[in-house]
């Protein structure tokens, strides 16, 4: 299932309204009316190592974001490859602190699977900056732009 929203850029802000879910991308054509378009929105999955304050901060800033906690997904003690598989099943970009092992696991994973994407947030990055980065990605990018892609934030 692909989640969609309709956004209108007006008064320097993006105004979103939820639309019904669409089964496959091939069943609809993007509608372009005035400043309106349909996009596939990003959903996030927190890895077990990610600071919960980042998830909480993102959700406080933007209630429309679908950001599942590691606890809700049952990720504690789960191997990286399984975490990536769970994120794919739920069409979520995985957000992790794990710069040491996750990039190589991701590279192995996408050789034989598609992925919704991976965002690495360095642990030394201030929480406020991590929150702003994730909000920016959600507001600007579409889910398709992150398929099989890894990003380390912030972009320097």
Radius of gyration: 16 Å
Number of domains: 2
Output mean pLDDT: 81
Q: H/E element string?
A: EEEEHEHHEHEHE
Low-confidence stretches: 1-34
Instruction: Please tell me what the overall shape is.
Output: globular
Enumerate how many helices there are, as a single number: 5
What helical percentage do the residues reach? 25-40%
C-alpha end-to-end distance? 34 Å
Biggest sheet record: 5 strands, parallel
CATH architecture of the largest domain: 3-Layer(aba) Sandwich
What's the CATH class label of the largest domain?
Alpha Beta
The order of strands across the largest sheet is: 5-4-6-7-8
Strand fraction? 15-25%
Description:
This protein is of the alpha/beta class. It folds into two domains: 1-40, no CATH class; 42-152, Rossmann fold (3-Layer(aba) Sandwich). It has helices at 52-61, 70-73, 80-89, 102-112, 127-140, and strands spanning 4-10, 13-18, 36-40, 43-46, 66-68, 93-96, 118-120, 150-152. The chain has a five-stranded parallel β-sheet with strand order 5-4-6-7-8, sandwiched between helices. It has a three-stranded antiparallel β-sheet with strand order 2-1-3, with no helix packed on it. Helix 1 (52-61) crosses helix 5 (127-140) and helix 3 packs across helix 4 (102-112). The longest helix is centred in the C-terminal third of the chain and has 14 residues, at 127-140. The chain is globular, with a radius of gyration of 16 Å. The chain starts with a strand and ends with a strand. Residues 1-34 have low confidence and may be disordered.
